[in-house]
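Title: Prediction job returns without error message
Component: structure pipeline
Severity: low
Priority: P3
Assignee: unassigned

Description:
Job completed but the reporter wants confirmation the result is attached to the right record. Sequence as submitted:
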Amino acid sequence: MTRLAAASLVGTAIEFYDFFVYGTAAALVLGPLFFPAFSPLAGTLAAFGTFGIGFLSRPLGSVLFGHIGDRHGRRPVLLASLLLTGVATVGVGCVPTYGAIGAAAPVLLLILRFLQGLGLGGEWGGAVLLTAEHAPERRRVLWSSFPQIGPSVGFLLANGVMLGLSATLTEAQFRSWGWRVPFWAAGVLALAGLLLRTSLAESPQFEELARRGTLARVPLAEVVRGHWRLVLLTAGALAVGYAVFYTVTTWSLAYATEKLGVSRTVMLGCIMAAVAVMGTCTPLAAMLGDRYGRRPLCLAGCTAAALWMAPMIALLRTAQPLLMFLGFLVALLAFITMFSVVAAYLPELYEPRMRCTGAAVGYNLGGVVGGALTPVVATAVAVGDGPPWGVAAYLTAIALLSLGCFALLPETRPAVAADHAATGASAPA
């Protein structure tokens, strides 16, 4: 389990490094380099628009790789998705700017971002399922939380590289070639991840399904036909996590540097410190999920997010590093209270024969609802010189939506499911 969890963590860290380095570049440099004819605000919106394309392609990736995972095994998904995302990310670092090739530059950027999202849409399902299906049921949330630490590690890697380049290069050097270096580094990381993952064993539950000849023929059709309501509920439930995370890590970076005059280095430092604490707390929250259940932690995290969005915006508006860090930290702790358990929660909601497709589609649709539009909407409503209370209202509304969806989902902790079976009550799949 230790080797398996480590391989899953490293793989998701590399995949999310690829995904996050684009978000940071979108907030800092992609607008003027690829959309120079736009005003600064319109350029930022356009850059965040290309950022959102990656979220729109993630559900397609979950369908494609989910089919592979349910028909041919979880392990091939881990290798193919990592390779696709790595190649696309290196490609972003090689795209000439608008000044060199004109309108072809943003078009290439969109295509490569689409491929990034396609690969990441498959990564999560494969990594989580391989870990969850090997894990002992009483520690399933804890072991499944290791892939969920990957996004924190990937974010710190991406922004650590960006921060180092920002601090050592002049502004002209950073805009000329410095921003490309993190994208090129993705190629080395992807090769390391592929080497680590080639030795992993296939999921025992998939092997049992294959042995009995009960694999799903068309997993997506079974999910849509029999579990469409569950997919929509999980997508709505997870939307707040994406919205909170990308508000903190992407929109706030652009807002503070452009509107509040905070230096790029200070903002990256505040955000990275909050993400580092969040990553450290992930297994601690997961242990609570094993002890008290998945659903209670999700409800608590949603409630905390709904209550904290307005204070977070107020603390961001102060432009004081310590206060901004505090606002980000509480928001991310609310986020990880939910997302530390969903890697075990979502697979438990679906039957093993369609689990890779169902869990991944629900997870990545949540990214479309909460992640794709949030930086664009937040940038659009944060106009004028006053505090951006519209952003707080938007995030609070998404938190309440997710709270309602989690309230309609069942508990899946093994002890609870066993009680349901013993009493004849309806139990989750």
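Comment from assignee: result matches the submitted record. The chain is about 85% helix and 0% strand.
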